[in-house]
Each structure stands twice: as C-alpha cells, then as structure tokens.
Amino acid sequence: MVSNPLPAVARRIAQKRWVMRTAPIVMRLERFVRRVSRGRRGVLDLAGLPSIELTVAGRKTGIPRTTSLLYVPRGDDLLLVGSNWGSPKHPVWSANLRAADTAIVRRKGDRFEVTVSEVTGMDRKRAWDLAVEFWPGYEMECELSGGRTFRIFELRRS
After folding, report:
1. How far, rounded to the nearest angstrom, does the alpha carbon of residue 81 sit from its chain's CA centroid?
2. How many CB atoms lie within 10 A of CB 3?
3. Residue 78: which of 46, 37, 112, 47 has the closest Cα?
4. Rounded-to-integer distance, Cα 78 and Cα 114, Å
5. Using an 8 Å Cβ cutoff, are 108 and 40 in contact?
6. Full-model pTM
7. What's the gap between Cα 93 and its chain centre?
8. What angle do the packed helices 121-134 and 137-144 form, to 10 degrees?
C-alpha cells in the first residue's frame, strides 16, 4: 500500500514565510473547491490534510458564518487554532466561537453539532504542543503575528 506523500509535503511548505502571502489565493480556491464539491472537499482535503467547514453564529448579528479550517485531531475531538495566517489580529471566526456554546461542523459531507470550549491554562500548553507537532507551520505563524497568543478551541461532537 502506497501512503499519500501530500500531507508531509504540505507540512514542509507551510513552514515557509512566503506561503502566508498566498492566503487570499488559497481562500478563493478553497471556496471554489467547496462549492463544486457541494461542501464535501476543500483544498486541504485535496492535500491529504483534515479540514472542516465551521458554522457559528456571529457574536453581534447572530447570523451564521461559515469558514473552512484546518483542524488538529485529538482523539474524537477537534482542535482549532486561531493563527489567522500569522496576522497580528485574531481571526473573526475565533471571536464568534469564543461567544458560542455550540457550532455546526461539516466534515467530508457529514454535518454535526459540536460543543465549543476555549482551551486555557495547562491544557492549552498541551494542546499547543500537539498542534505544533501536527502542523509545524503554527510556530512560524506565531512569529509572524508578533508573538500573539493564538486562541485554541476544542470541539466535541454533541
């Protein structure tokens, strides 16, 4: 059996600073792939990496907002890291998630509700270490952000 080499290649490429400048292109491509696959696949899926579509109510408007994200598997749970491509600002989805108790996840065509909790304290250090082991680019993104402490969330299937 031949294993997929793409995840390892993607992890190596994601550690290059120039990749952060491709964010607008990747995000447009992500929306296109999601649209043509009816939400079942995204760019990360094509690269052999785990991705979801997260839908959470806007904290101010209550209007559902959907974002495609890389997730870090942790047992049956999913970890999300608010790296925002190394921007000094937190991603909007993380502020919405911080204000929510639940959200909707779509993963490979499966749609389900999750409970949301922000990971803090000693648990945050363990979650960060796991996230960096899974996706080494987070360390470089943290540097690019000026050392911003990324928000980390645990999503647990309801």
Report:
1. 6
2. 8
3. 112
4. 10
5. yes
6. 0.84
7. 10
8. 110
Q: Which helix (H) or strand (E) holds 123?
A: helix 121-134
**Residue that has been written with the tokens 């996840």 in this structure:** 105
Q: Is 13 left (phi over 0), alpha (psi -120 to 50) or beta?
A: alpha
Task: Give pLDDT tens digits along the chain (158 positions).
Answer: 557 777 776 777 766 766 667 666 767 777 777 778 777 777 776 677 888 999 999 999 999 999 989 999 999 999 999 999 899 999 999 999 999 999 999 998 899 999 999 999 999 999 999 999 999 889 989 999 999 999 999 999 99
CA distances from 127 to 72, 79, 98, 118, 130 (A): 9, 8, 17, 11, 5
Residue found under tokens 């907002």: 65
Looking only at the bridges linking them, the beta strands covering 64-70 and 72-74 are unpaired
